[in-house]
């Protein structure tokens, strides 16, 4: 009975996924083939979706660059540097971040974080303005792509941390004890044994976090002041938008083939997210089982 229920649940998920793909494809094709004068943007679909794809990938990549080192550091600290009971408590607290609704993160980013970053953005423009990332003019509101990336980084932090923590705990104790017995310090043991052993798991966790960041809607829509451009500037008020945020902001007012164009952009996001999660699952599944893992 349990086997039948499990197979039924798995097949149901596949059917739902296939249904979403069929719906997006059927409704999106008219938007892809629509002429520029038939949609609100006044552009071809490729010209319409490219800035959105860039903004989606750019913000998610920035979030990953911020979150992954912090998540790995937190996972190592919780696993190896604090007492076991305190480590479990800290782990539960970090995991609770995943239960916070995205709209709460959006409100925090819009009302608190953005205002606090106005001064640092002005400093970056004054001192590092020769770099294309900080060329300015700095935003007077702080609602930039970098602010959105920081919010996304906080949102994906529990996912990456949880996976990294579990991977580190699977490091064979015999290897850890052997390194310590040879005179290695705790950090040397982590650097030479734990991190190489958990490399594939960390990559898989990072890619799962990337999938979450790619699909985030409300937090980005509330924080980001988007103008639909392609720009590497992190502190300017001219920011690229993302596919989920653009759909959320434009769908209610859309009509005709504009709706189909938005659905087609959702199809592009579906393909990107599916590819990222598929790659993450492939990397995680490549890990081998080790004996002597931490209990």
TrEMBL record:
Q: What is its main location?
A: membrane
**Subcellular location per the Swiss-Prot or TrEMBL entry:** Cell membrane
Instruction: Specify the domain of life of the species encoding this protein.
Output: Bacteria
The transmembrane segments are: 52-78, 90-110, 145-164, 217-237, 257-280
Q: Which residues form the ABC transmembrane type-1 domain?
A: 53-280
Q: Which GO molecular function entries does the Swiss-Prot or TrEMBL record give?
A: phosphate transmembrane transporter activity
- Gene Ontology process terms (BP): phosphate ion transport
Provide this UniProt record's keywords sorted from A to Z. Answer: Cell membrane, Membrane, Phosphate transport, Transmembrane, Transmembrane helix, Transport
Residues making up the signal peptide according to the UniProt record? none
**PROSITE patterns assigned:** ABC_TM1 (PS50928)
Q: What family is it from?
A: Belongs to the binding-protein-dependent transport system permease family. CysTW subfamily.
Q: What does this protein do?
A: Part of the binding-protein-dependent transport system for phosphate; probably responsible for the translocation of the substrate across the membrane.
In terms of PANTHER family, this protein maps to: PHOSPHATE TRANSPORT SYSTEM PERMEASE PROTEIN PST (PTHR30425), PHOSPHATE TRANSPORT SYSTEM PERMEASE PROTEIN PSTC (PTHR30425:SF1)
Which NCBIfam families does the annotation name? phosphate_pstC (TIGR02138)
Q: What is this protein called?
A: Phosphate transport system permease protein
Source species: Mumia zhuanghuii
